[in-house]
Structure formats: structure tokens, C-alpha cells
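Q: Here's a chain of 363 amino acids. Please give me its 3D structure as C-alpha cells.
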Amino acid sequence: MPTTVKGIVAKAKGEPVELTDIVIPDPGPGEVVVDVKSCGVCHTDFHYREGGVSDNYPFLLGHESAGIVSEVGEGVTDVAVGDFVILNWRAICGECRACKRGEPWYCFDTHNATQKMTLTDGTELEAALGIGSFAEKTLVAAGQCTKVEESDPAVVGLLGCGVMAGIGAAINTGQVTRGRSVAVIGCGGVGNAAIAGSHLAGASPIIAIDFDEKKLAAAKELGATHTIASKDLDEDGVVSAVQELTGGFGADVVIDAVGRPETWRQAFYARDLAGTVVLVGVPTPDMELSLPLADVFGRGGRLKSSWYGDCLPERDFPMLVQLYKEGRLPLDRFVTERIRIDQVEEAFDKMNRGEVLRSVVEF
């Protein structure tokens, strides 16, 4: 039978979220119900609340989660009741042109649950990134569940979005390897994850760039060898500072974890000739970039965007959880605080003031 649980819903643009009753249907073919154990408070959820993703209100927020499978629908074979899973928002189809050419991390037709979760009056909810896990239970497509070794949900659940996006931007998209120099612009959760990924790959030097000294301190703990406080520097000043730390050349890989025209230009000019720029920060639709085409041609290299860290959840999640359990990847340092579900609105405020890497709701 359908289940009624508590969940966090954004009902109108810019208005505080509400903790309210939502209805979880029984899973249909290819669907799974998950008992949510944790959910990170991500900027994307705030963007949904503010209308920055779409205006298809009401939204059931939350997507950065781990939990236990409690029900499975017809035809589900990859996970079973009782499995500990991390939720992901790119369940690959296996049939699109990207999947068929052997690049499933670019899947162009990812899928979600077919049924909708609803309010108690029957109003359909749009689940954030097809997950909607600021709730005691959620309904997802089976492919959105990746079974991993059971661990602290509040920690490993962050692989469901921001931490995976950052680590993957370095290792998968930027192809950072031992001895490469890396600069990361913006040291929030995603940027510091990119630093952790670069450190894991053996990069050196690893340069962290941010306005906020506290975020730079966190970056040092996660593997940055140098920091640049950008609050008193213009675009050229940031570029010069990176070049000074890399023998005058610029970094081999520069990762823009902010996603603004000015930070992308910094990344472009702060890389070495034939170096790589990775954009993982998400720009808003109104942003435009102006750049001399001759500079694009003359500097060579690669200009790449990173979708979810170009990850393949079934490949990457188990490996990263294992590295965490071995003490080689300090995922726990991304958890700034553990909160109740009724504290999400307060957590949005802390996030926007730059006071946390991640607030994590625990159920």
C-alpha cells in the first residue's frame, strides 16, 4: 500500500520550504522504494527552491543520499530488499548513442521512476534531480541505486552529488595523474572534492583559490599544497598567482568549481599551454562568455565541461567507499554538521553564507 511520510517541499519560488506529508506509491516495474538514512543539503536544492532549475512547483527536494532498499518492483534484479545503496541521478539507459559507443557516463537518456510521489491531496511532486530524498522514504528507478559496502550514510551519501562531481571533475574529466599541477577555483564542497581527488591521484602542486580563508583552510586539510586568497585580487592577479606557483607556466589542469564567466576566464588563462580547463561549477542561463577566438586557438589544449564528474556510479561509488574505509579518502571531512529534517531552511542560510561544506540531514 502507498505510504505517507514526512518530506521537505518547495511550493513557490523563493518561499521557505515546508515539512509536510507526502505519499510514496508502491514501486512499479523497474522501481524501488528506499528508506532514506541521510541527505546532504546541496546548492542544487536551493536552486530548485529559487526557480533556478524550472518552475514546475511543487518540488520534493533532496538528492544527495544513502539508504536501505525497502521495496522493489517487478523486474528489479540489480538490488534487493535490505541492500545499502547510494542514490544517483544519472541512471544510464544502455541504449542511447553515448551508451552504445562505450561512454555510458555521458548517457543522453537517463531515467527516473515512472510514477510520481504526491502531496496527500494528490498533487504531483517534481522530485529534485529525479530523487526527492529530503524524506523518510523515496521512490526511484532501480538504476538510481548503487549498492555499496555499508558505511556511515551521512558521509558516503555525499558521493550522490557534490563530492562525486568534484572528485570526478579531477580524475575522470580532467584526467589528473601523478605529477600534474592542478588549480581549483572555488573551494566549497565540489571544489574541495576536486582537491581531494587531485591529491588521491598524486598531483602536485595542488593550488586552492577562494575568497574565504576558512574554505582555504579546509582545502589544505584535503590535500592542497598552496592557497591563493582571491578576495584582494582581480582576474589577472589570480592568473599571475597561479603562474608564480607553477614555474611561470600555469597549471596543467584548472578546475572552475564556481561557474561564472570571470572564474572561467581565470581558469582559461591560468592553465599552461595545451593544458586543460574543466568547468564543473554550474552557470545560470543568463551568463555569457566573451573570449578572443585567437586565444582559444593559440593556447591549444582542452576545454571541457564535467557532468556529475563524468562518473559511472556502479564503477566509481564502490571504489571510493572502499578508499574511504581504508582511510585513503577523507570523505568525513566534508560533513560540517548533522541536522534534523526540520532544519533544512536554516542549513540553506548557512550554505549561502559559506559557513559549511555540507550540512547533512540524518533520519
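Q: Can you summarize the key feature?
A: The chain has eleven helices and 18 strands.
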